[in-house]
Amino acid sequence: MTDNTPKYQPIPIPLESPRDLDGKPVSELTMRPPTTSDVVVAQSKADNPIQKDVLLYANLTDTSENFIQSLAFYDFKQVEKAFDAFMCPVSKHVDRRALFLPKPLADTASEN
Fold first, then answer.
1. Where are the beta strands (DSSP E) in the chain?
2. Using alpha carbons only, how large is the chain's radius of gyration in Å?
3. Which residue of 46, 55, 63, 111 shows the fewest CB atoms closer than 10 Å?
4. pTM over 0.70
5. At 53, is the secondary structure helix, strand, or coil?
6. Model confidence over 50-90: pLDDT tens digits?
7. Cβ atoms of 59 and 29 closer than 8 Å
């Protein structure tokens, strides 16, 4: 039996300004759905709210605190938006996640 119930899915986050991570260029991050434990751990290690977010985003994207801090602010805000997509019901998450996915070529051609 297959479960067709919608679920929270990882979100791809393209970076406008790629950065190096472990000597390799990174042009896209993938954020996995957070757990309560992820939030508790980040909160317990952080001295302030922005540091909590940086620690949490680093964990959810399998990067580092330094990497997240090195992001262009626009890219950091995109990471923040991806996290926010997990803070709504699954049905809305699916819609918000779709905003991060590439549009089909037919859709982009009709915009021009």
1. 11-21, 24-31
2. 15
3. 111
4. yes
5. helix
6. 999 999 999 999 999 999 999 999 999 999 999 999 999 98
7. no
